[in-house]
Amino acid sequence: MINTVGYNLRMLRFERNYTQKLVAKEMDVSIQRMSAIERNKQELDKELLKKLAEFYGVREEDILGE
């Protein structure tokens, strides 16, 4: 199975017992945008990728599945 960006973000969030609301607030984006990214309906821009990697304490490549 190829892990997608959305899947990887969802798993990171689940592992930490975070809600989409919490992550969206920390990233200063809407819950709708976070949901769309996790469902692979919206692309993840470089700036948000960097912030999410720092927030979760992982490498950007881990989120991208590289």
What does this protein look like?
It is a single chain. Helix 2 crosses helix 3. The protein has 66 residues and is mostly helical. The radius of gyration is 11 Å and the shape is globular. The mean pLDDT is 94. The longest helix is centred in the N-terminal third of the chain and has 11 residues. The two termini are 13 Å apart.
For the record, give the distance between the C-alpha atoms at the N and C termini, rounded to a whole number.
13 Å
Order of helices and strands: HHHHH
Name the helicity range.
Answer: 55-70%
How many β strands by DSSP? 0
Shape: globular
Low-pLDDT runs of 5+ residues are: none
Question: The biggest beta sheet, please?
Answer: none
Name the average pLDDT. Answer: 94
Rg, please?
Answer: 11 Å
The chain-level structural class is mainly alpha
**Continuous helix count:** 5
Percent of residues in β-strands: under 5%
Question: What's the gist of this structure?
Answer:
With 66 residues, the protein is an all-alpha fold. Helix content is 65%, strand content 0%.
Write the layout of secondary structure elements.
Layout: H1 5-15, H2 20-27, H3 31-38, H4 46-56, H5 60-64
Kindly list the characteristics that best describe this protein:
66 residues; mainly alpha
